[in-house]
Predict the structure of PRD domain-containing protein.
Amino acid sequence: MRISRIYNNNVALAQTFSGEQMVVIGRGLAFGKRRGDLVDPTLVEQTFVPEAGTPDEKLSWSLAEIPSQILGVATDLESLVKSEGITISHSFIMPLADHLNYAVVRAREGIVVDYPLAVEVAQLYPQEVRFGRRALELVRERLGVNLPANEAIPLAMHLVNSQFATEDMSGTYRMTEIFSQIFGVISTGFGQPVDQSSMSAARFVTHLRYLFVRAAKGVDSEAEPSVPLLLETLKTAHPQAFACARKVLLILEIHLEQQLTDDELTYLTIHIARLAKDQYGSSSRVS
């Protein structure tokens, strides 16, 4: 591959002989080089493909500002995520590296940041929080910097965000707040707290996450339950789950700013009934 653009001595944009562009990272790989020179493959430590449509100015500024060691950590974390079968967008590396860079700067300057949704994130996204903690370990191993334990929370949210291929982190945090509110409704409805680390809660969260994606894209529910027959059956068999589902549906309609169908009410009732059965032993228990 040949160098298309040099960002610093350790980072360059290169083009393969098949025409694909990628960022190459490695100590001294661009030192003394010019545009058009061949990249020494023995010096390449990490590579990543930038997100299609990323403006050159934005990419150039980011790559010039972020140390190559941190870019290397971010690319290794991407490889870790993909090795676990998690599908993420190409835009994962740069926001992650940018966050890591400023987290390292803050840690060295003794600046502490509070993350108000830490409890909710830890309960709703246990897999992603484990990734965040692994990221902290890798930073400590590679850079010798001990980041605060709560930095695992925003790192986890970067992974959540990337799974939906969106650039807007505020939407991901808003979604988390809504999920916490929904579990609050279920806890109140059944008179007991919900164990959000349980498998049934995880399945419910997965359904809700993809509901947000479908709603954003204007796509209807993925399947066609027997409505209204199934819904009427659920209403009779699981009255508390149905009552909770109606409240959850209203919350979702308010936040998504769109009307949801009886299909979605059916899915919500099924998930809440399963969750209640797993956690309370009955989906119709009187609180």
